[in-house]
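pinned: reference chain
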Amino acid sequence: MTPEPSPFQLLPGATGSPVLLHVPHSSRIVPERVRDGIVLDDEALDAELDHITDSHTADLAARASAACAAAPWRFVNGLSRLVVDPERFPDDREEMLAAGMGAVYTRTTHRERLRPSGADPAPLLDRYFHPYARAMTTAVDERLAATGRAVVIDVHSYPAIALPYELHGTGPRPPVCLGTDGFHTPPGLLARAEAAFAGFGGTGLNSPFPGTYVPLKHYGRDRRVGALMIEIRRDLYMSEPGGPAGPGLDALATALAALVDGLTDA
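pinned: its C-alpha cells
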C-alpha cells in the first residue's frame, strides 16, 4: 500500500501574526484505505471530486501569504473532504447530516450513495477528524500565546450554480460570501473583509453558506478568537467544475493579502 500523505500541515508565518488562514477543502487526495470504502467507480469519484473540492484555494492562500508584509500562519488539509470534513460537527449538532454530509459523508453532492449503508464513521473520525481538530486547537492556542489574539480566516470556494446537496441553495450567490458568527466575528473584522473584497462585484453575508470555523475549545467562550469564512464563487477564478485557475486568482490573492495585513496591524 502506498504511504499516506500528511493529513494536514501547519505552515509557519510571522511570529507576531495573529492570523491563521485555514484551508480545509482544497485537496483531492483520498488514501487507498479510505478509497476502498467508497462505492463510486473511478470515473464517478473523479467527477465528485470536481464538484466537492474547493480547487486552488491552497494556492490562493499561499499567494496571499507571499504578498503579505507579515505572513500569516496557514493550516492546510492535505486530504479530501471525502475522507472526513474537519469543519463539521462530529455528532447530531451537524445540520448537514440531513444531506448525508456530516463529518463523514455518506452521500455525494448530487445525493447519490457515497458509502455503503450502515458504514461506521468511528474509524475515520478517530484516524483523521479528531487529530485534525486537536492540531487546529493547538495552532489557535499558539497564536493566542504569541500575540494575545487569534483570527481564523477560512478560505473556501463554491459553485456558481447550486448543487443538490446544498441546504440553503435558493438564496443569493454573491461573488464573495462572508460567513460570520455572532460571537466570533466582530464588526471591525467584517468591515475589513467587505472593503478588501469590494472590487469583485459585491459581497454578501451567510448565503449560500453561513457561519465560520472555530475550534470547539474556544467556540462561544473566548472572544480573543475572531473568525470569518470567505466563500469565493468559483467562476471568479476558475473553470467549473474542477478546471484550471484563471487570472482572477491573483486579484483575489491580493485582496486576501490586504485583509490579512489589515488584521495584523489592527
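why pinned: The mean pLDDT is 96. Strands lie at 8-11, 19-23, 73-77, 150-158, 176-179, 203-205, 225-233.
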